[in-house]
């Protein structure tokens, strides 16, 4: 098919020297560089671009901008590059573009659902969503399946997105949203003060309404003024221009989110470049110059392809040299839309008539039209359109807008295009994002931005200022004022505003809904929200059913719920609600627009934070060694810790048993570098420890270590670890791996807010030290080989630490144990960590030193009944619950953190869940962690749950499985049986026992 | 995303540098053992949740690691002031507890 | 410590040395100032004896204005907080400088050797502002971030202290355990500009 609707115009916005081939629903078409998919389809005379959501009616292109509710496509040729739901009116054409209707399964021209359209409609009356959500919840799943298939929600890509995305932060004095006449004028005047200015526009080039306007500026074409102004701005170092950049959200404290489409217009998958970039702009002042959207009128069968917005028709003619039909009927409530009839007439195609709802008008444009000899029907409305896949004609009748009635017989006019204009709605979406309630402006019959807490200005069409000369002067003034508010300039514009002459316009009429000779409920469908098939009758039905708040009407009818957020239909919907309830529009109010202004891809929002950059991975200095030795890794916070070190052919369980036995019988080595370490210095360090730990620190001598438990003020355990006394006034505290940052913040919180008088400083040294723990009966023999200090039992006692040289490296060695075996924790400066680790491995070779990971560490410590905070505790466990009263200082002077709470009633109950050991009756069965515990086996469901398993393993050293658990009153129930009903329906029995399974006297760690 | 003035770094910084740290100006009872369970529970658990002015603590986690106070309107997210630990707010709610 | 002991900087595994000279066209240039001495210094900026002691030990007045820095032959000092500074000294001198500070200082102060805990990356080049804008939300305009200023802020999804050395040169102090992430981030973010390792 050729471009039947492309005329020999003179637009510079398209490049006729570059023909682009594209396909739509499997057919090939041609367009030009500069086209949107919509303008190219209209050029080719494609009428039907999709099917409607509920009634499956054929739909055509209505708008030329972000309001478009029908031409919403699936664009992209592969499962990796396909994009659901871009608007054809905002999709730049590129060579080879592949698009299809999202709604129109199986085929837009012959739609299976269309033949059962009535059924579809009656299955889904207004309120369908609402009622479905309310009542048959189980049915929703099956409805959803059906609806999604027919609903035009688009299909998400099935393969990974090959493109790359990123984000950038910016700061500026004045951020201008919208590059039309108001925005460009504001940018120019703000920039001339030296202010840092950013201006963005969603279209492929700046100019906004001027790109399709014929009104001269300074005696030149408006596009020439745009070109000159953009060139001026580009030359200024303090200005950043962002075309193809949609401001999708306006957030707190003047943060503006922008999505720049950098390569979308070039084709799919542009290697080596960022496809979309999100700019986060923190602006001192924001100017919204988002303009206004034309509002369609609501009339019978107003969705038949060929029904369009008046301004959209002008845009296609003037900007794209496309006349989307042969015979036009224009219906308007205002003078402004007469431009469309003039534009159409000048292409040489026929304007059948203008139907003006007003009694009369004597404006300049009206008089111009009269001179052209075009018929005007004043006091009339188009009450109904004839045709199904394309407009064939209209019924025009005299109307009385005040009492919503048709006052005379209808006359039929043949035509193929109906353009309508109900006036303009300021684009208040971004202003609404900040929580500002829009205010109804009677004069323009539209909402304008209301009061805001942001440093925000608005100008031009957004303020209801529509005459070009006023828009430009308002833009210049606003730019200067915003710059001054940002500290630049004196608030006045020094330049000269360009000359324009605006046609005199008569008053427009506030009319939204055209009456029909039948009652609304009986009249042909009058669509308000095209995307969701919401009709005037549906809204009136909602009102009759008692939904009067506009927010309820919205949820009941789905008005404004589409991906277009009701840009086209919301105001009409509110007006119809107001009329039906006998209220004014301000009384009815408006719903609030929220981000995103238009749909934004997940890729853009994710930016570069994907795959290995999704979450930082932290590594110890020995990580490369672990990799080379086949470790499997476990995530502990952001750390990658060796989980276990499988040898070829081993299962995980076999590895764990080998690692456990090697450690208990000879020597194992663990990378413990990830434990948090805090250097605590100052004369009050000791007193501070007394206050934050439950146990006493006053008498810990230099060279000694002590285990400590920290509680929150509610008395619950939140971290534990060993702290060593380095010097009279200096300690090194270790924390759990996951708790490191939180503990440091906790210490700082108390020091900075409650006890600033204590002289103490905390500094994190976690990353400074590489820590390797050698554990097992042969660990001393290994250490002796590479250590310059006597580490014999007499000289280096349990819970001592020494400074020594290990393998030639200065080290701190702690004789502490988390396995219950003789253990040494060697700490060296991390730059020497790898070297030292390798030396220890070499020294241990003769003892078959075995690297082990976190899982073996967990088994070995659990055999000893040592808790892991966060695994055996969950923020509701006191030291007493853990049977660890020994770690609570009884004579400490200061009422340390957590102490007072232990005497609270709830914490003294004797049926609190307490930590115990569990021995399954079947010694080979490993209880699932998290399994619930009951006292009585035979209970009806729900059973009385009395606790759960916190840690559970098979012990290779002991030859049976075991667990740690919390059980109500468990400490006094040792020897009793409990039952664990499992998810597979079976119930297993276990015996409550001491949590210390291995070496209960603790001899092994003291040798 | 808020823009927050750190009174120690003495400049505005992006919210992502900070962590919220709860209601400000809660003082730990000097003698916890001398007060009733109920009084202790008030100190532990009871927090304001106003619509309007709220004095709250923030931590400049990615910056100077200092805690400070802010007076923020919880409805509009305006931050009226930030001030150092130990200082009193200049902006306070009126008698009704609202602004 | 024995000379035969091989120290490995946090980016040792990236083998940056082998990438030097591989590309000279990049808009971004990266250099790791590895294995320097890093000392965390704490003290009261209102304590004149403390200030005098530091000046004597390091040969330069402690920068006490927020986000300021100072440099002497011995050390580069970055303000981290009203009572906290980072002192960067030549590789291997950290122990001596720490002892020197301890001998000159009295009263309430703290010094921690954190040389193993972090590394110093220098990023420069004609496109450096682009990379920095992708990485941090701080305003990089010279009015807001003049030469010599140091800020603690977020860098991608981790944190860094960033010192501006000149209009197009920044030094980043990053934690050892996050350095691989930072290295990956720099590679990703400089793709459109080209990355040169020096």
UniProtKB/TrEMBL annotation, chain A:
Residues 913-999 form the Aminomethyltransferase C-terminal domain. Residues 622-892 form the GCVT N-terminal domain. Pfam families: Fer2_4, GCV_T, GCV_T_C, Pyr_redox_2, SO_alpha_A3. The keyword Manganese does not apply. Residues 173-431 form the FAD/NAD(P)-binding domain. GO terms for biological process: tetrahydrofolate metabolic process. One of its GO terms (molecular function) is transaminase activity. It comes from the Bacteria. Keywords: Aminotransferase, Oxidoreductase, Transferase. SUPFAM superfamilies: Aminomethyltransferase beta-barrel domain (SSF101790), FAD/NAD(P)-binding domain (SSF51905), Folate-binding domain (SSF103025). Residues 524-607 form the SoxA A3 domain. The keyword Cell division does not apply. InterPro entries: 2Fe-2S-bd_N, FAD/NAD-bd_sf, FAD/NAD-binding_dom, GcvT/YgfZ/DmdA, GcvT/YgfZ_C, GcvT_C, GCVT_N, Sarcosine_oxidase_asu. Belongs to the GcvT family. PANTHER family: AMINOMETHYLTRANSFERASE, AMINOMETHYLTRANSFERASE, MITOCHONDRIAL. This is Sarcosine oxidase, alpha subunit family.
Automatic annotation (TrEMBL), chain B:
NCBIfam families: soxD (TIGR01374). InterPro entries: SoxD (IPR006279), SoxD_sf (IPR038561). Coiled coil: none annotated. This is Sarcosine oxidase, delta subunit family. It comes from Colwellia psychrerythraea. One of its GO terms (molecular function) is sarcosine oxidase activity. It comes from the Bacteria. GO terms for biological process: tetrahydrofolate metabolic process.
Automatic annotation (TrEMBL), chain C:
Gene3D superfamilies: Heterotetrameric sarcosine oxidase, Probable tRNA modification gtpase trme, domain 1. GO terms for biological process: sarcosine catabolic process. SUPFAM superfamilies: Folate-binding domain. It comes from the Bacteria. One of its GO terms (molecular function) is sarcosine oxidase activity. This is Sarcosine oxidase, gamma subunit family. It comes from Colwellia psychrerythraea.
